[in-house]
């Protein structure tokens, strides 16, 4: 990856020769050298967005240089999130800028939302705009939608190959459609091969996979996986040559137990492991992202140096970017975290791409940069109304929520013809309705939040409108409020709006500052729990209603789906 032109490279040499002043000099720094695994003392020179010198000398030319004394402090590379979903009822610009203040300065992001919101030309223009933010932003190349869309042409060879060649796209996957490889999916295999030819790794999605399946996936070219749920899972993957991200996420906070398990098994080499939060919702990332993973790892016995390397150098090496990212050395992008103590991974100062993001525990204010309207990402304008026919429920098969990720089919025996279902039955109406008003899928859901009159959400796996509730009256109120806001998550009970999160950016993203997003997220979770929601994260529950990479029964654009058989049990109805 070439980040600097010849003229810029010559200028960097001029800084060393003393004819040009560095932008920032960190003096008296005790920094972690990830190559020797030692804490060394040095002065660190930064010119614009690049580290140009690490050593004992100070520059000869210092006109305009910002000196920062690191005496008594510790310096580590900026943290890297290698598996980011920045759209979980969140604004990706706010998500990444907020996380950068806690030390995560590089993100490798899912691109699925762009597929659903924009055409390729506008998406690539949007990606270029994101690259101008003072954080380091890269993207995946998705191969499938994780659901069953009406239009499956969204993922086609021409677009996939264009994504593959984009310089800001550095991996393929995550590969939720991997079972199709085992049944002869040559188109998917071709896409994987083309990514590998470009030197870009493939991220798997292999929860619970056997050694036999993992071996087959390795032969197909899968490079890494983030779905380990135990130390045994991690070791199984490492032994087969995978690189493994250890996860601390809203619904899979497995990291502490995995670290303890690995140490108990005598593991002392962590070079092929990294950390991920795998798409935290706003409330879960209130205190940061990778800094929290490091904290959990250290608390559970992981050596300090290994933890900081897993947070920086290891993912950079995985993405074939170690010459630019993941270390404090000449030639690297200036992503630097300054700590008050080695044991404390929460930085008091952060430099990203050579710019101060946080300094002496004070956040540096940056205005919002992305002009969403320029890319036609604006409030939803629904030209249809919720009708009495939309709220007719006659399906014989319902959705039984077992836990955060598992939904099973069940036979509906209750009378659901009335306008309200008693909360004692633990059942609610559920409808997924096309945001363009063309179709609907209706059934009953059991065990979601049975005491709640209504939740209506434009945040979903497809961008269509989810309606869940035990009261048709409350469903109408929640729908009208969601429509008025141009997209939102709205909770209503007994005619009263209890909580809401406006999502005016395409109906799936908020525009509020992150602290507001966190507050609204917490409020929605609290209200749902007060009305019978028994799981970890309602944002994920809404997202996973349509996710066919999870067992066993889902509601999608095409209808109610038996996931294992990939069969439509009850098709969508045209409105």
Helix segment tally: 16
Describe the main β-sheet briefly.
9 strands, mixed
Report the mean per-residue pLDDT as an integer: 97
DSSP E strands, number: 29
* Beta-strand content estimate: 25-35%
- Structural class per helix/strand content? alpha/beta
The oligomeric state is single chain
Distance between the termini: 50 Å
Q: Which bin fits the share of residues in helices?
A: 25-40%
Low-pLDDT residue intervals, each spanning 5 or more residues: none
Bulk shape? globular
Domain Amidohydrolase-related: 74-356
Family: Belongs to the metallo-dependent hydrolases superfamily. Adenine deaminase family.
InterPro entries: Adenine_deam_C, Amidohydro-rel, Metal-dep_hydrolase_composite, Metal_Hydrolase
Catalytic activity: adenine + H2O + H(+) = hypoxanthine + NH4(+)
Written overview of the protein:
It is built from 16 helices and 29 strands. It has 575 residues and is an alpha/beta fold. The strands form 5 sheets. Strands 1, 2, 3, 4, 5, 14, 15, 16 and 17 form a 9-stranded mixed beta sheet that branches. Strands 18, 19, 20, 21, 22, 23, 24, 25 and 29 form a 9-stranded mixed beta sheet that branches.
